[in-house]
Write a structure and sequence with these properties.
Blueprint: E1 2-7, E2 13-17, E3 22-26, E4 32-36, E5 54-56, E6 62-66, E7 71-75, E8 81-85, E9 98-103, E10 109-113, E11 118-122, E12 128-132, E13 145-150, E14 156-160, E15 165-169, E16 175-179, E17 189-194, E18 200-204
Antiparallel strand pairs: 1-2, 2-3, 3-4, 5-6, 6-7, 7-8, 9-10, 10-11, 11-12, 13-14, 14-15, 15-16, 17-18
Length: about 210
């Protein structure tokens, strides 16, 4: 069950193989370079629930959602463990079922947690900054938030899976707009990506597109 994927400035590819609870690193041609495949709750070990995102910042630091351990792990550009943060619960900085993760140009880390359900924001070292969201179907509310991405202007896009829509917020979590179910997401939006021109790409899990 490969879930999270990212590419660093050296065109090295990282894949979080959530079904096996391991992290894989490849070169641009697909040759395996490194594997983190030790199970557990120690530094660099994983306890995945079968899904979980990863993100890479401008300095090639890697952030991985280790949701079975209710935490995010950070590695440097060479794959060395740096730090981890989080614990089980519903207080600031805690997680119930973290899924998606994204990093903005300033290095702030955004994590979706569909168990609460909210978006939490941390600085690059894992210090809690703010959160937004709650359960529901109104503006700024979520039912199963999954994929998340941040554009060059700091706007945040969240796949609101069970509400069958994509929501857009500013960097402070203020609701801006949404793409409702209608024609686009009669299925279920899950992964989100944004290119350099600001175009938004969304995977539709239920309809396979």
């Amino acid at each position: 069950a490969p879930y999270g994927i990212g590419v660093n400035s050296r065109d090295e590819l990282f894949v979080f193989d959530a079904g096996n609870g391991r992290l894989l690193k490849f070169d641009a041609e697909g040759m395996l370079l490194q594997t983190w495949d030790e199970q557990g709750s120690g530094p660099g070990q994983f306890n995945s629930l079968g899904f979980g995102g990863l993100a890479i910042d401008a300095n090639d630091n890697l952030f991985v959602v280790d949701n079975g351990n209710f935490r995010v792990q950070k590695f440097d550009s060479d794959g060395n463990f740096v730090t981890a943060w989080g614990s089980e619960g519903e207080e600031d900085g805690q997680f119930v079922r973290a899924i998606g993760i994204a990093v903005d140009e300033a290095g702030n880390v955004y994590v979706t947690d569909d168990g609460r359900p909210v978006v939490q924001v941390f600085d690059n070292d894992g210090n809690f900054l703010r959160l937004w969201g709650s359960a529901g179907s109104g503006e700024g509310k979520f039912r199963h938030p999954t994929g998340i991405a941040v554009d060059q202007d700091g706007n945040v896009y969240v796949a609101d899976y069970e509400n069958k829509r994509l929501q857009k917020f500013d960097a402070d979590g203020n609701f801006l707009l949404s793409w409702e179910t209608g024609g686009q997401f009669r299925g279920t939006p899950e992964g989100v990506g944004i290119d350099a021109n600001g175009r938004v790409y969304v995977t539709d899990y239920a309809r396979g597109r």
